[in-house]
Write a structure and sequence with these properties.
Structural class of chain B: alpha+beta
Order of helices and strands of chain B: EEEHEEEHHHEHEHEEHHEEEEEEEEEEE
Strand content of chain B: 35-45%
Number of strands of chain A: 0
Structural class of chain A: mainly alpha
Low-confidence stretches of chain B: 363-374
Largest sheet of chain B: 6 strands, mixed
Number of helices of chain B: 8
Low-confidence stretches of chain A: none
Oligomer: heterodimer
Amino acid sequence: MTHRWLPRTYLTLVYILLYVPIVVLVVFSFNESRTGYAWEGLSLRWYEALFNNRAMVAAMWNSIWLALSAATVSTVIGALTALALHRYRFRGKKLLNGMLFVVMMSPEIVLAISLLALFLLVGLQLGYVSLLLAHVTFCLPFVVITVMARLSGFDDSLPEAARDLGASDFTMTRTVLIPVIMPALLAGWLLGFTLSLDDVVVSTFVSGPSYEILPLRIYSMVRVGLKPEVNALGTLLLVFSLVMLMLSQWILIRSKR
Amino acid sequence: MKQTLLSLQGISKVFADKTVLDGLDLDIYDGEFITLLGPSGCGKTTLLRLMAGFEQADAGRILLGDNDISHAPPEHRPLNTVFQHYALFPHMTVFDNVAYGLKMEKRPKHEIRERVEDALAMVQLGDYARRKPHQLSGGQQQRVAIARAVVKRPRLLLLDEPLSALDYKLRRTMQVELKRLQRELGITFVFVTHDQEEALSMSDRVVVLKDGVVQQLGTPREIYERPANLFTARFVGETNLFPGRLKQITESAITVDVFGVHRTLRRPDFSVADGQSVHVLLRPEDIRVLEPNADHGLSGKVVERNYKGSTLDSVIHLDDGTEVLASEFFDEDDPAFDYRLGEPVKVSWVDGWEWLLPEEAGQAVPDGERTADA
């Protein structure tokens, strides 16, 4: 008997631990109460308060714009890097490959400090550009690895077939290569978008007063005291992340067929 | 006189210090079905890729008619390839796959439609134009790949083991189909395979390759009946090789001592000397199994009998242990035909059906050699 209920209890506890805070957050975002410690009835007032908070809405648009641009830039650079790593043999190929993993595995704080040091060294003003460069840096390895995974299952005779039928290298890339790796490009882009959107550590270091982004705004809000507004925002972000996650899964599953 | 369409001159190719092709010369005639045959690693696929332009030769020239195309990129060569694993574009429909080459030529829309439909009808896939490649069977994908390659009306069609991924029965059907297409289109086919049966049954000429060097170039019949060397003899078909020693040599005939039995045979083309060692090559179907009290032949006993439908294949051990493969057609009227296992018999062959090969350097005639390359 023991061996059967023990794992179940353990698993239940793990899931409770994981999901109760999220459920609490969602439930309390609809709470009438000002303090957020007791239930006082259903209300949308915190959502209203959220959208009336100008600084918050501005930070949200900043974050979305940053995530869009960081995801797009890293997808372009990442796809080209993956293609180069897949197609060509060159000196330092292994080194380049390894460096991608270093960026991915190294603690974020290390990346944050080194990026800040770099930006100060070259005299770059902290703001949108520094944030973009930093976000592209940590999104890049994820895009490269996603695209490389797709390319490893790619039939290398496809480009040859296109060339054989009269396509130049450029036309072949446009009509065969990119359409075939498109699902990986989309998946990589979505990954980059979400990574950029919820990054706190690196952003704290490399952002300036001119460009406030959502995670940092929330962070500074919470420090002064927890407002139920944050619950509403958290709920919205949760829904948004779930939609993005399902979208990327749907694209990947559809492309496997 | 046959017209040379593609001429390969002194082609060499080295990959990472491994010589894949070594000064190879080959002329391909207009309108022929020529097969590059050899074991894996013999350079046949590399040769095909050089013709297509996917690889560049380290030395030598490739001429198409009078044009030197040695350095032309694949898209500028008027020849097309059918790939081993079809290489159909997975994101396009069958129609768009076949139309791809014509779109690259910027043909008018109505012409593309017409030619694609014709090409698909030719491979009996007219109703499948709207499907995606993954919705087709292997054989159908293969036919799309062929349609896609021939729709451009190339001077030359290169086929890289196109049937190797198909099952046996489908392969036979596609062999017939390919032959029919080649006749109807009048396109020169260069076909790569490691399957000697396929090579023999489909080709006008066969090039036998080993280690990047042409071993023999000839009609299927020449390759099978008069192999130029031991490699070809063993690679193409099943072979019995008997060690022989030359005894008497006259103007037109020689006497060979095979296991103590003397046979007088036609004098071969190569130079002969008294006492020289030779290989006497006999195909299993050249062998006759006789009763043990026959007045000629080598004595031995039956160790294996395999019923193959149209033929009965036997393995016979001669008294000294040499294994002999024999393949006989049924003759129900012959009472002596049905030998049992272990029964003593005599082995002989029809005069003139043997083929002699000189002993090759480093290849002493081994006693009791069985060479059955399936």
